[in-house]
Structure to design on (1092 residues):
């Protein structure tokens, strides 16, 4: 806990430095609006809200700026892109090394910068609510899970911890948030299955507070945020004090060790040393986690090419993965008809398990 | 834990004093029946089973009296009122200060009298089961959650922690029971959303063991109670020993601090000092938590006027809230068509999130 | 933890001794197959996969043998019998005292041999997945719950902790696994209600990861196992390190005390001293836990006679229960029309609680 509190101080100090660097306080990857005690944060980091240095910086800045704003009781997060809340992490350090340097400065042992973002969110004095209309994967899914509440749109929202496909485990708190929220058995399935969970399944697993019909998501979340903001003075603080977040220090350390361990495995000569090998694996389009069934059909997801590479960062004293996503207008087919011998086959995660529901396709 | 055990002793001693005061041992707000190892406690505190001093006293008395009755293995709680299990707390100290004085005597630091009732219930050697046919709100919902098991009737049962609407958080253990049972994210939604949860949603959240068709609730719970009571000697004790309640001492303290803090906030000059202000807020009928959709339609809830006031109690060494409920024959409309500008609008909590279910109205 | 680690060492040593005893390493109650990193363990202990000494020995042996096999990343358990995964525990010590002697050797205080099997499974370095096509009861259900993940077939799979009907509580970790996974309220219902839970209900309670249409279970679990086994090096280890099993030492001790206490109750003169009395109770066919509704109809369970007896075992330094199951071709009727006065009546556990589902019969 001491480390985490130190980290929060560090974040505040870092934000001052970032603010000093900038000539103005505008956010480049999100929009902020206030109304009646609700701060609405609309993530807008085109094309698919990759969680890059710019977005991480802006999220930390807006959380820090709002922390002491007593006129704000609720922070509601949504996306300008109806298909993606946060597509995934993209640590393109090459482009903005200085900004990342500032973010990573003085981070205590055992809490990496990704865990730090989640912890800042968990410790926010306001109530934080995610309106999940589209997809959140990798670090994006961790952000959703770190928020106080999250509501998803049936048929459109999707959550996935897809890190395993790239040879790592979630390293931004996700393993700990999931184990706490959905139980160890389902957390292992989420992390190792690396599939995309639609809103209904995520609700059943307890990952989301609730899955709502897509056409009602806005009204429900907006109404909830407004109602909470209209409560008498002190109720939000009292509730967040009484229902405090668990101390995850030990779990963060274990997760970080597991996560970093994947970058520097002596047995393999270090995965970072051969990015092409891992990259080649991921270049198979069937290896990518993506929506299936109703999600795919409704969201018309349009990824066509995913590549990634490992990059070393002395700033983090560890290596972080980066991968890049190109968006085109090619629709992903909702079924896969080809399975090459010896290749990994992707199973279809059923959308629901009610006996009365239509059969869900599995590996053909 | 030491404090809690001391409290249990205190309760026993208090009960002796109460018994000495009374000329007979009859309960005024509940009925007790024994049969084949099952004690059936029927709450009957007309008109709507408000959890007042009389009912709290009777519940503590009956739990204490049964504690050492080895012929009883299961205690099943139900209500004489099909629409209300326990409507909410009503600490009408004005009417029975002496009785409340006895209840509150010698309560250790950090455990208030409401938490004490929940803790007595959690530590009861018998299996405690709630048959929830109607509504339980505020302290009534806390009682339900503190029991070992609870089953609710689809379309009729409802649970709500509505304290936030009155400027406080649940103070009788509810925040801790909920965080443990439904997870932090949903506990925050329950407490801060202050909505009423129907049985199906409460089951999905894990708040109830199970939601059952209303016509089967009696047979299911009665059968379960009978079966457990018919188990071989020692099984109930063994199961309750192996699956022990968690020690909530720290959480009780945190909750109590948060709860009491709402009564003595210097920033507002103390809410207790201006009961009319708070009362005026609650006089808006749209502000009250109450059943919606199927619950409202089936239960034909007939509240029309809710008022409340804050009262100071030196007996508790803190201030407790009191509010009063009048029941008339006017039915609450199931929808709200008017939203005055600037007024808080109530969202409709969807009854279920299954994709196939009918659309659930939200704020129009 | 020290005790548990010592126990693991003991298991390894015991296995060497068992291996030395045997002229070959074949398993008598299961089949083992390897393919692409997945070890498939097919339990085949006819007629109904009773968890007897032979099966316990084979399970410990195969887990021990696979522990250091780095070519295996996933262990998938399934049954050769479509109706039973593991019917229940059957410690027929009479037949194989030596084997059981070896199993029980050097078990530390507070961890009995049944808990030991669960703990070995929980600490397995590979990912363990149960494909539950039929029934698992008693120690069989504990095995399922101890695995990392479990998926069940709608309409066919069933889980039940039926020990209470025989006068004991689950003693192989089940109370602790359940409390952790489904919460205290539902764990008490499972243990004391002693009913059989179908896959859909078990999923809703969080007991199973997921209930799947029976015709998709194979493809889903096989696909998941294959996908996990195909992950890059180190991911499985990292995930299992980050999402570590909780230390249950204290809970194991509490469970063991509760469990063993049922065998040596001075108040009853010791149940072990009068096996016929307890056996007579269980000879009532209505007392037996068995599938109902869709499970019974689809699985065509064919038990007709259950007897059991208590046996004392100095090897375990405690008494263990044994009971025997005969399988005939007589189908269990799906409803019970007779209730003799004074006899325990069995309630029907509803298969699902969705309001739209057909009414579920209770005891008529």
């Amino acid at each position: 806990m001491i480390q985490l509190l130190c980290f929060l101080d560090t974040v505040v100090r870092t934000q001052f430095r970032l603010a000093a660097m900038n000539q103005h306080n505008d956010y480049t990857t999100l929009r902020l609006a206030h109304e009646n005690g609700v701060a609405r944060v609309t993530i807008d980091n085109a094309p698919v809200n990759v969680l890059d240095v710019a977005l991480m910086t802006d999220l930390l800045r807006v959380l820090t700026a709002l922390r002491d704003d007593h006129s704000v009781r609720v922070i509601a997060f949504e996306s300008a892109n109806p298909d993606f809340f946060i597509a995934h992490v993209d640590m393109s350090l090459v482009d903005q090394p200085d900004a990342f340097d500032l973010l990573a400065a003085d981070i205590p042992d055992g809490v990496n910068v990704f865990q730090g973002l989640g912890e800042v969110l968990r410790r926010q004095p306001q109530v934080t609510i995610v309106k999940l209309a589209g997809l959140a994967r990798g670090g994006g899914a961790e952000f959703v899970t770190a928020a106080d509440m999250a509501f998803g749109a049936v048929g459109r929202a999707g959550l996935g911890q897809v890190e395993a496909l790239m040879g790592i485990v979630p390293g931004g708190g996700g393993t700990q948030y999931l184990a706490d929220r959905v139980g160890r058995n389902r957390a292992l399935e989420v992390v190792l299955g690396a599939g995309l969970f639609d809103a209904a399944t995520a609700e059943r697993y307890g990952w989301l507070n609730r899955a709502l019909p897509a056409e009602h998501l806005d009204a429900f979340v907006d109404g909830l945020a407004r109602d909470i903001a209209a409560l008498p003075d002190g109720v939000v603080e009292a509730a967040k004090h009484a229902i405090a977040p668990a101390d995850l220090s030990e779990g963060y350390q274990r997760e970080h060790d597991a996560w970093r361990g994947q970058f520097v495995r002596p047995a393999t000569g270090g995965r970072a040393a051969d990015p092409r090998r891992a990259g080649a694996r991921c270049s198979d389009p069937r290896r990518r986690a993506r929506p299936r069934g109703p999600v795919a059909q409704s969201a018309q997801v349009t990824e066509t090419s995913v590549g990634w590479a490992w990059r070393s960062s002395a700033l983090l004293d560890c290596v972080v993965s980066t991968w890049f996503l190109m968006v085109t207008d090619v629709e992903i087919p909702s079924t896969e008809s080809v399975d090459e011998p010896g290749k990994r086959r992707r199973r279809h995660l059923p959308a629901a398990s009610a006996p009365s529901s239509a059969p869900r396709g599995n590996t053909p």
